[in-house]
Amino acid sequence: MNDSTDTGMPPCPGRCNRDRVDGGQVPGAPVWCRACQQSIHVALQELVDLYAALWDAGQRAAGAGEKVATSRGTGTPSVSPGADQADEILRTTCAWEDALRTHLGQQAAAVGIDHAGEGRALTSAVDYLGRRHTAAMSAPFATEYGHEVLALAAGTRRLLRADRGTSRLAAPCPQCDLRALEREGGTDTVRCRACRWFTTWDRYDAWAGTFMTSAA
Question: Is 49 exposed, middle or buried (0-12, 13-18, 19+ CB in 10 A)?
Fold first, then answer.
């Protein structure tokens, strides 16, 4: 039975309904289900740290003698994918803040200070959207907004993994049981990209050895 017929709500557009084979679907509440709403909220908050990580990577590249430029105001691609991605995070998040303010009939956002000392501040846009998450999740543009936030966070994580030389590990995550563990290049951190559980490399190595022995 399709679960969405029980509530009268259309199915959630999120990953909860992706590749389901039982014929059922998780209904939206009213658009995204509660679990996907939480994932979107977490991804939104994560954009601040991801943005900072991109900026730090750009600074390291500049310190190593690489030419790093952003595409702000130029209308042309930058020479750095990370700089382009940072600009995209800022532009997209501020655009959604503007859209939600218009939807709620509120005044335009004040101009803040970003990492370059100009324009809008990412932290204020994320704070605004985060505090009005319920309103965003029931707005006419909720589907597009959710997809963009999730895609932006996921794309940035992939870009940073490539930059850091992140390696995927063989053993499954002890918390969610998915094979989604990764070690961030140059660090001692092992993290699950599915449930965000993390540990140190030494602890993972000891646990993985026990797991592989028992699975053999």
Answer: exposed
Q: Provide the 3-class DSSP secondary structure of residue 65.
A: coil
Return the exposure string of 169-191: e unless at least 16 CB atoms fall within 10 Å of the residue's CB, then b: bebbbeeeeeebbbbbeeeeebb
Which residue's entry shows tokens 């999120």?
14
Edge-first strand order for the sheet with 189-192 is 167-168, 181-183, 189-192, 198-200
Q: What is the mean pLDDT of each run of 10 residues along the chain (216 residues)?
A: 59 84 85 94 91 75 44 45 86 95 92 58 93 97 97 88 70 84 72 81 81 62
Any idea which residue has 């092992």 for tokens?
190
Question: How far apart, in whole angstroms, are the C-alpha atoms of residue 47 and residue 61?
Answer: 21
Distance CA 142, CA 208 (A): 41
The model's pTM is 0.67
Q: Is the dihedral of CA 139, 140, 141, 144 positive or negative?
A: positive
Would you mind telling me the total number of residues written for the chain in this entry? 216
How large is the angle between the packed helices 122-131 and 81-104, nearest 10 degrees?
40
